[in-house]
């Protein structure tokens, strides 16, 4: 059973009391000791007698700490202590179930090895593996991530990460694909996001007066930390990304409902891996009708192109027309690359 923060605080206070052989702790004393600590953290918090008794029972249980707690009669009252004063909940061996959870967490943590700003992972992971022993069972990982350590632009990740945490304004040199010269501007970074195996940063472009300017890390050619005053963002980034696919959100654009039709062969894939959290679907004959509510952007059309020829955009008409134009451009490019003439 997961232990929340307040429960862990109570168990630690009880542990300290039960190990103290120089004093008798009656239930009222235990309540008082716990409340002292809780109210230092939050004056509105307190604990009841029933909660303390439940905590003691949990500490004695195998689901808890298997503690041997004595209830010693002292007149009409009882005081509590460990039968072995050397016992502590902080000294008990870690359970196999907890080892497996730690192992899974280490596997996730190790994903950041090789990324700037996370070099400490090289030291922490082996220490954890040694501390908890056996965390590299069979020598083969059981979890893998799609991550390219050689991805261009990762060298900027650490600087951007620190700038967001420390609220620093940057002067960035940025060169778009096919641009002849880079552009330089002052940038207030807010959020790092990975999409389609590329990293992006979103922030305020001071020269463009745009608070949602996204930059691909692989197009950044230089970063310089400045002493300019940082302008904070009030954006809820989880909400910001909910209405789009990818990272591009056009100013003042609103989500629209898009109706799509997929072939029978593609239906299982779209059902098991939805295009967007807003997705709703139903079968119409042997085809799958899908509805999503998003702001159309270039990432959405790129995603839909991946389903050709098993997809048709039905509604709205402007999205259907834009998808058809994108499809025609892709076909023309493919024909030119193959040397096919009309």
UniProtKB/TrEMBL annotation:
Boundaries of every WYL domain copy: 155-225
InterPro entries per UniProt: CBASS_pafABC_assoc_protein, WCX_dom, WYL_dom
Domain annotation WCX: ranges: 254-329
Top-level taxon in the UniProt lineage: Bacteria
Coiled-coil spans in chain: none
PANTHER family: PTHR34580, SLL5097 PROTEIN (PTHR34580:SF9)
Protein name, UniProt field: WYL domain-containing protein
């Amino acid at each position: 059973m997961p232990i929340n923060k307040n429960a862990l605080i109570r168990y630690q206070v009880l542990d300290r009391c039960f190990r103290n052989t120089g004093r008798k702790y009656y239930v009222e004393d235990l309540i008082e000791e716990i409340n002292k600590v809780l109210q230092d953290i939050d004056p509105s918090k307190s604990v009841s007698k029933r909660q303390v008794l439940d905590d003691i029972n949990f500490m004695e249980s195998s689901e808890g700490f298997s503690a041997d707690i004595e209830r010693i009669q002292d007149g009409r009252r009882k005081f509590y202590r460990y039968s072995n004063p050397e016992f502590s909940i902080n000294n008990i061996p870690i359970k196999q179930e907890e080892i497996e959870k730690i192992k899974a967490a280490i596997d996730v943590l190790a994903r950041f090895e090789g990324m700037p700003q996370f070099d400490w992972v090289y030291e922490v992971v082996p220490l954890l593996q040694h501390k908890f022993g056996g965390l590299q069972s069979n020598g083969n990982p059981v979890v893998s991530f799609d991550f390219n350590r050689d991805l261009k632009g990762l060298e900027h990740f650490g600087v951007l990460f620190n700038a967001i945490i420390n609220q620093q304004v940057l002067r960035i040199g940025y060169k778009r694909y096919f641009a002849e010269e880079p552009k330089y501007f002052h940038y207030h970074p807010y959020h790092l996001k990975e999409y389609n195996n590329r990293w992006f940063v979103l922030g305020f472009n001071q020269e463009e007066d745009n608070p949602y300017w996204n930059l691909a890390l692989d197009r950044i050619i230089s970063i310089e930390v400045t002493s300019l005053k940082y302008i904070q963002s009030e954006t809820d980034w989880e909400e910001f990304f909910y209405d789009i696919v990818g990272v591009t959100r056009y100013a003042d654009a609103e989500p629209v409902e898009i109706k799509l039709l997929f072939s029978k062969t593609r239906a299982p894939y779209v059902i098991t891996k939805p295009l967007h959290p807003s997705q709703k679907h139903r079968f119409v004959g042997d085809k799958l009708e899908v509805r999503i509510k998003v702001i159309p952007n270039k990432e959405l059309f790129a995603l839909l192109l991946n389903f050709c020829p098993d997809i048709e955009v039905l509604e709205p008409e402007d999205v259907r027309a834009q998808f058809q134009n994108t499809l025609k451009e892709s076909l023309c490019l493919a024909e030119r690359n193959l040397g096919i003439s009309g």
